[in-house]
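Record 1 of the preview.
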Amino acid sequence: MMAGGPDQAASAVDHVRQARERKRAEAEAIGVDARYIDDLVERFYSRIRTDELLGPIFADRIASWGPHLARMKQFWRSILHNSGEYSGNPMIKHTAIPDLGEAHFARWLELFYRTLREGEGDPRATALVGQRARMIAESLLTGVTVQRDGVAGGRAGRNLPHV
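->
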């Protein structure tokens, strides 16, 4: 049974909707709209596919790039617009990759930052998206390292590059 009743539940739902709308509006105000995200994802993963370090990892796991890119666009809209449209568990996918480590995440960020800068409009967009990318990379690297090495891996992402 829900404490507070239906009025409180409706208020909570409205609060979440407003927070999502506010986050999207703030991102769009600096140019981070759906088109920006689509373009970023397309350009970034085009670069990933040809990268000597990361390309083979992706090639071994992605049979069809169309669905993967669509999923990554959902992921980034969820991160940058709080859209709530992505459901998945990236941690499980990343912990299943043998020998994934700091060098891989650092390279991922380097390519991501390069892609951001090449398409830069508003520097605030680059900062926002770059900061979110680093948080994701640090979180995934930490999860992968803790899974493999135990609590000693708890700060594994501290040396990753910043935008």
